[in-house]
Design a protein that fits this description.
The structure holds two protein chains of two kinds. By secondary structure, chain A is mainly β. Chain A has no helices and eleven strands. Chain B is mainly β. Helix content of chain B is 0%, strand content 50%. Classes of the chains: A mainly beta, B mainly beta. At the A-B interface, strand 5, strand 9 and strand 10 of A face strand 5, strand 6 and strand 10 of B.
Chain lengths: 109, 115
């Protein structure tokens, strides 16, 4: 993986809680992405950003929201977590190649 | 619209044998093609890419891939498989780097190397 950091790596939380998954990168890349992936399954693009104050929804509808106030950070928020949100969330940037962070494995009980 | 297909959900290969993981693509322009590997509870790791030039691309961990324009394929290969190669492999395609900035991923192929 490149210099993309995601925290926490693992999170187990109860239904109804608000959570924020952090993603940061030190490469100064403008474009950042969030993917959702069930274990061993395909990737689904849920959000992307082309720079500060730019956010777009991806191909898969998601109840999460994102913000991009600084180039380095692209946090993802779930206002009220549900068991259906249990999944792995991968953050990525892109130049001519897409680079991924290590992922956050979220479990909602 | 661009798309990528990995026709095999799973590939089993004996250790020491050559391996091939198949990928075909569809794009409107010139393709940028990628292979990634994913180990359990990890993000995707970049293996190799084809942008232009030699059709045979060499990447990390002894992997290589051959771009075949006529067959619209980009199969991943390795001459001698290792048990440690067991992982989930994703092929990806991008039309060109400065337009559509989304990479389309295949559904993944699980590679099992049998000792």
């Amino acid at each position: 993986e490149a210099d993309i950091y995601q925290t926490p790596r693992y999170l187990v939380i109860g239904t109804g809680k608000k959570i924020t998954l952090e993603c940061s990168q030190t490469m100064g890349h403008d474009k950042m992405y969030w993917y959702q992936q069930d274990p061993g399954m395909e990737l689904h693009l849920i959000h992307y950003s082309y720079g500060v104050n730019s956010t777009e929804k991806g191909d898969l509808s998601s109840e999460s929201t994102v913000s991009r106030i600084r180039t380095e950070h692209f946090p993802l928020t779930l206002e009220s977590a549900r068991p259906s949100h249990t999944s792995q969330y991968l953050c990525a940037t892109i130049t001519d190649t897409q680079y991924f962070g290590p992922g956050t494995r979220l479990t909602v009980l | 619209a661009q798309s990528v297909a990995q026709p095999e959900d799973q590939v089993n290969v004996a250790e020491g044998n050559p391996l091939t993981v198949k990928c075909t693509y569809s794009v409107s322009g010139n393709p940028y093609l990628f292979w990634y590997v994913q180990y359990p509870n990890r993000g995707l790791q970049f293996l190799l890419k084809y942008i232009t030039g030699d059709n045979l691309v060499k990447g990390s961990y002894g992997f290589e891939a051959e771009f075949n324009k006529s067959q619209t394929s980009f199969h991943l290969k390795k001459p001698s498989a290792l048990v440690s190669d067991s992982a989930l492999y994703f092929c990806a395609v991008r039309d060109h780097p400065w337009g559509d900035d989304k990479i389309i991923f295949g559904k993944g192929t699980r590679l099992h190397i049998l000792p």
